[in-house]
Amino acid sequence: MEDRFKQKILYSQFFLVMALIVLLWPAIGSLTRVVLQDINPANFDRVKWNLDLAILAISVALLVVNGIVIMFIIHQVTKPVQQMIQAIRSYKEGHEESLPRIVLRNGAIEFMQLASTINSLTDQIRRQINVLTRQKEETEKILASIGEGIVAVDPSARVTFANQAACRMLGLMREQMMGRTLDVPEAGMLKKCHELIVHALQTAELARHTWVVRDKGTLYLDLTATPLAHQEGALLVLQDKTSDYRIVELGKDFIANASHELRTPITIIRGFAETLHDLPNLSKAMTVEITEKIVRTCGRLDKLVRSLLTLTDIEQVSSKHFGRVDLVVMMESCIDTLLAIHPTAKVHFISEAMSVEVWADAPLLELAVMNILENAVKYSQGLAEIDILIALMPHEVQIQFRDYGIGISENDLPQIFERFYTVDKARSRKKGGAGLGLSIVSTVLEKHQGKVFASSTLGQGSTFIFQLPQRNLSRE
After folding, report:
1. Is 455:462 a contact under the CB 8 Å cutoff?
2. Domain limits, the chain
């Protein structure tokens, strides 16, 4: 740009000087004749020619000097502009990520002001870019940390962003998704996601669908495609609603199981009552047997109702009822209670400390312990034998219960803490169980911010471990 500017000025100056020479040449000739009219006629032409050459040489010299002066002025004037161009050229060619500052060593005050203005604008742009970059990074961190899958697409349905949750739910690496559409024919859920995105882009309306995955357990994914403002693309949100659906299913199962468990003893009681009513002349022995069965069934019914009420009460227990509880004293009391009911049982109790205090609800914790001990006796072959250990860990207190009973199969083990789940329904009913004992244990431990674990081997017995967090120990 600078070279073209110099050339135009030089051309204009050259043509201006030439035009002046052409216009003034007749006048110069006339002036020459007047000056030379007294010269010897014999030498007139030679002198005139020399004078013309001198004038021409002077004109050319003036033209050259004028050009040099003009080039110097142009250089001085355009030097700051050239410095500005050189400063931003690396950014223009992509060698720099941001506009560099323009530093002028000298130049007119107007150029200095122009450079200062450009630097000020550059600083504002750089600050704005930094703010936008930080906001983008923060947004990506937030989107990456949430449990929902987030996928952003451009107006052509190509992926521009996907967080880790979305990659996990869709079963793809982020690199496999970026810059591509989700229109994969052989992948059902991906194809459905693409259809929802296209619908949102074309209609500018929200599109939803619930996708059920049954490969490894049933999963429920809510797929929602939302168009972005100004037709800049769409957002696909994938939410794992499995827990919500499971809660609904558990509620239905709970009602169904409770109804079934309640219906059975009621039916038995009603049957025996009708027998007594319809056959008043039964023998005394038969009458006693029937009444004993009615009483036993009523006891089972009462136990079931009390267990259901206990579960409800546990879920509503407040931490206001918590206090300092010595696990050693509580365990000795539970063992005494168990031996009073089952005097033939053998219990071996060891504690790593003379006193182990936790912050707990004593009646609830005793209920959980008694349920474990009762189960150990109930499902033992022959005489029951139980080992109990209270161990102090770095961040928690553990209570281990080891029995040598019939054990639990590997398939049943993950489900034993579910409500109404029983390994052997016939044996459980015979023993008076309804599948709520271990569920109560699990709920009690959750109320204490602890956990319960189980391990077992068929025919060799089971081990249950209570874990209470260490931080509860110092509470007042």
Report:
1. yes
2. 1-143, 146-240, 245-315, 320-474
Say how far apart CA 15 and CA 7 lie, in whole Å. Answer: 12
Residue burial 311-350, b: 16+ Cβ < 10 Å; e: rest: beebeebeeeebeebebbebbeebbeebeeebeebebeee
Residue 317 to residues 360, 365, 452: CA-CA distances in angstroms?
11, 12, 19
**HSE, side-chain direction, 13 A CA sphere, residue 85:** 7
CA separation for the pair 307, 432 (Å, rounded): 12
Written out in words, the top-level CATH class of the domain with range 245-315 is mainly alpha
**Contact, 102 vs 87, CB < 8 A?**
yes
SS3 at position 327? helix
| C-alpha gyration radius of the chain | 48
320-474: CATH topology: Heat Shock Protein 90 (3.30.565)
39's CB contacts (< 8 A; 6+ apart) are: 47
Are 313 and 443 in contact, with CB atoms under 8 Å apart?
no
Neighbours of 273 (CB within 10 A): 13
Main-chain phi, psi angles of 19, to 5 degrees: -65, -40
Confirm whether pTM is higher than 0.70. no
pLDDT tens digit sequence for 143-167: 666 778 888 888 888 888 888 888 8
Q: From 17, 116, 1, select the one nearest 60 (Cα to Cα).
A: 17
- Domain 146-240 sits in CATH at 3.30.450.20
**Are the CB atoms for 422 and 428 separated by under 8 Å?**
yes
pLDDT in tens, 364-413: 888 889 889 988 998 888 888 999 999 988 888 999 999 998 888 888 88
List the one residue out of 232, 89, 217, 213 whose CA is nearest residue 153.
232
